[in-house]
Design a protein that fits this description.
Elements (H helix, E strand, L loop, with lengths): L1 E10 L2 E11 L4 E5 L6 H8 L7 E6 L2 E2 L5 H4 L3 E4 L12 H12 L3 H15 L12 H13 L5 E5 L7 H16 L3 E5 L3 H7 L2 E6 L2 E7 H5 L2 H6 L6 H9 L9 H14 L3
Parallel strand pairs: 3-8, 3-9, 6-7, 7-8
Antiparallel strand pairs: 1-2, 1-4, 4-5, 9-10
Amino acid sequence: MIMFDNVCFAYDKMNILNNISLSVTKGEFVAIVGRNGAGKTTLMKLLNGLLKPTSGVVTIANLNTSVTRTSELARHVGFLFQNPDRQICRNTVKAEIEFGLKCILTDNADIEKRCRNTIEKFGLTADKDPFSLSRGERQKVALASVLALSPEILVLDEPTTGLDYKECMHIMEIVNELNINGTTVVMVCHDMELVADFVQRIIVVGEGRILADDICRRVMSRTDVLEEASLAPPQIAELAIRLGKGFEGVFTLDEMTGIISQKAKREGV
């Protein structure tokens, strides 16, 4: 689905990404993490053709992004900006969702059907002005407008920034359901608790290079890598590291309570 082959990118002759090689297969849920300025957002924009590599090749759904129009890539890749206000451009929810559909479809009946189904799925009100909604609701409108296009790949740039816990969980449950049903998801995220709850694989980026690329559990146990990237493991994982023997590799609450319960039974508590 996604392939970076020795990719470099530079702004004004300043290298932002250096010799990045990675692949993402269909149906994966991948998080890209790292400190500010590490190159995460640049990597995301290369994923959907908003930026072209200075050297190397980016391939998305068998299309070379350097020679493929962004409009063509948009048929395969949906991109959700960190700030929904940079994405929303129409004065009703219905018009916002229709906007993207009209760019790729010509059948008005199909556009109307997809728009109606999307509004119902997300529990939105068609004639509402998006800018009268809360930040979480605007993010939901932006996500709905992307998903109405039925992309094979969903790219998310810090999708839960500025949301409260309830709004955050609602957005992530929608994304997780899509992933379960086969959509490939790549997400930039700074919240390692959220990453631990939903993501299968983590790519850690630092100083324009890949510091680690592995399943979530292994990366969470790499304290050296997390420190280099200025990341903190989830609180449960950090507690497990401090507890030491018997708690190795624990990074979810269920795992922690399970081990404590077993120890309590053995000791007759």
